[in-house]
Amino acid sequence: MIDLHTHTTSSDGTDSPRELVNKAIVQGLDVLGISDHDTTSGWQEATESLRGNLKLALGAEISCLTDDGISVHMLGLLFDPLHEQMQTVLEETRDGRLPRMRKMIQKMQAEGFDISIEDVEKAMPAGATMGRPHLADALVSKKIVKSRDEAFTDLLHNESRFYVSHAAPTPIEAIKLIRLAGGVAVIAHPFASRRGQILGVEDFADLVTAGLNGIEVDHRDQNPSERAVLRVIAAELDLVVTGSSDYHGTGKLNSLAENHTDKAQWEKLEAQANARRVISL
Questions:
Q1: From 1.10.3210.10, 3.20.20.140, 3.40.50.450, 3.30.2350.10, which CATH number describes the 2-95+167-270 domain?
Q2: What is the pTM of this model?
Q3: Confidence at 168, pLDDT banded by 50, 70, 90
Q4: Residue 71 confidence class, pLDDT cut points 50, 70, 90
Q5: Which pLDDT score, from 0 to 100, does residue 183 have?
Q6: Cα distance from N-terminal residue to C-terminal residue, the chain
Q7: Which of 81, 133, 126 lies closest to 249, judged by CA?
Q8: CATH 1.10.150.650 spans which residues of the chain?
Q9: What percent of the chain has pLDDT over 90?
Q10: What pLDDT, on the 0 to 100 scale, is given for residue 227?
Q11: Domain spanning 97-156 has what CATH number?
């Protein structure tokens, strides 16, 4: 099994990189992609935890905004971790998360919610990249909601009155950067309408021109009809089709490897990186 989209405590997951690697080994995965939000800080621990036949496809999920203000997530895999421009952009995107969180909390406080930035910080593992899931965890801790899923469904989705966008590269800029750093770019859950505004079919041509390598098709937030349309787009544009769990650990329903990528599709994707960066023993 090949799962190319997971998260650890380095961003908004609840398993450490070591714990996630251990779970992947127990479940018999062949390839595990770790793609924390806007950071590569979990790569070293994951690599040091590797054993057996498991292989690692390390990367990051880069937060993007289109010119129209639509939130898009771009998976960058197998890029050079020492690429200075990549690390600069990731750092700048992380730095924008604190003022964004403060604005979201101010909006919630204005409507009477008993929540503070300190509550969010308490909900974050040390060294994590701040994100909405940590606000969700704080809301759970304060007994305002029962789970992360409830928090996102009712309060924190992209169309929520509490949502605040943040400074981020456009999807085209992110793709070009990933390719410049030697990696491959896969757009994550592009038709996940339950998250808010989504891309249209007509948007993919420009992404391919920028260097897009693949589309995450099989994802729990995309229904069968959306997946069917994405498969057609991938076939027409010669893009790799991936399936992934978007696993975050406890608090979200996503199970590790609940969706996975076909081996032939993975081999096609890996071959498009400018060097072999899959990590194995």
A1: 3.20.20.140
A2: 0.87
A3: confident
A4: confident
A5: 98
A6: 18
A7: 133
A8: 97-156
A9: 82
A10: 95
A11: 1.10.150.650
Residues in the chain: 281
Token digits of residue 160: 């929520």
Residue recorded with tokens 């101010």: 106
